[in-house]
Amino acid sequence: MAMKVKVKICGLSRLEDARIALALGADELGFVLAPSPRRVEPEAVKAILEALKGESGVRPFRSTGVFVNEAPSAMRDIMSFAGLDAAQVHGDETPAACAGFDFPWYRALRIGSVADANRLVGAPWPCPRLLVDAAVRGSYGGTGDSIGTWAALAAGALARDAGKEYFVAGGVRPRNVASFIHSLSPDGLDVSGGVEEAPGRKSADKLEALFREIGRAEATRDEKEVPHEAR
Question: Do 174 and 210 meet the contact criterion of CB atoms below 8 Å apart?
Fold first, then answer.
């Protein structure tokens, strides 16, 4: 059976949205701690995570803070205060700068072409995961634009050759999530605007639709991978 795609619901700002995401099957919760319409303060993140961890029946999850060009010491302090598990580094940081981080982190990269994938994903990033997002001029992410298929495939191949998890972000919605799963075979999907009613406010109906379509896509993928004689 094919490996289950991991799902990170990002841009959260409300406890009820985080609770619904986990109940539906989210593996990871993301909080934007950089300039953005979805920005939340560390105090709000801390309150949400403490509430979730104090509730019975909440499935295990990972929590991530999204940072853009933040000082390492500030990232470390915010993560410790809020109770975050890892940092998603989404700015202009170089591999050399990231190598000095003394906390769990992974790299988000803005990819606009196969050449971008070769240059950026192929760099020596000392982290276990690479997340690829669409390159949009003047933005560090969260635009809702989708990365091109060829660029995403090139990025995925490079990430896996380097032994890293390969996550895809940008434009993932209930109506197209099956296409992402079937065409790109990512290890994980990062979803934010595609399940919102407003920036930072998730829609329960869209979350339910997303996980329903993911389940259908995974079932179809598994069926295709079973040899005909074994059916």
Answer: yes
